[in-house]
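User: Some background: our group keeps a shared notebook of sequences we're curious about, and every so often someone picks one and asks for a predicted structure to add to the entry. Today it's my turn. The entry only has the sequence so far, pasted here. Could you supply the structure so I can complete it?
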Amino acid sequence: MTDGSGGRQPSRTHYSKTVVDAAGATQGAVFGDIPDGIWYDSLLARDTGFFIEVLGRFHRDLEPFDDVQIIADAVDGYNPMHDLAHAFGTALNAMHGDEHPLLCSAAIPHVAGKVELDLHLDAAAKARKQAAVENYLPLAEEARRILEQDPKSLENEYLISQNFDWNASWTPAWERIGRDRVAKGLYETCITYAENVQPVAQALIREGRKSTGVA
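Assistant: Of course. Here's the predicted structure to add to the notebook entry:
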């Protein structure tokens, strides 16, 4: 959804496009055209209208298809937009009648959830994956940390399901990091789960259920 700029760096959408094209996939209606800064500002403002409008773009993109499997980011506490992507996925799945379970891809190892699909990559697939990782230069350091945590992460692809409670209290890792940076004077303010992400996620899920007549 985002352009990966983090609000301060150049967009990395062209790297994502290269990966998508190489996989023979198609870019969706919301593919890095909205800079990170706009997403973050909208979260800080709790601008639910902005997020519901984006949800509508996703939904219109999928309307021509009868059989849709939604795969979203997992709620992993690593990044607020990863977590919010799960809420988008939940809402879209509801709009499509929950015909298939929502599947999730986690950005980091050891994320809570039930493994629904475990693909062991053969040598050729592993080589393609490694090349894609190495060529995605802005994520080189992130990839290095993930491989340190889970050296076998190049060998497998997992899709999980989660039963995340959007009404419960939670303090994700990204919020603790944000608060620490505010305390050090690096940021003026930070996004929090309870004040920013949770209400937007709840609004998205309500909107998804509303479209099917479910309260």
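Suggested note for the entry: The chain is about 45% helix and 10% strand. Helices lie at 13-22, 36-44, 48-62, 80-95, 123-135, 140-149, 173-183, 193-210.
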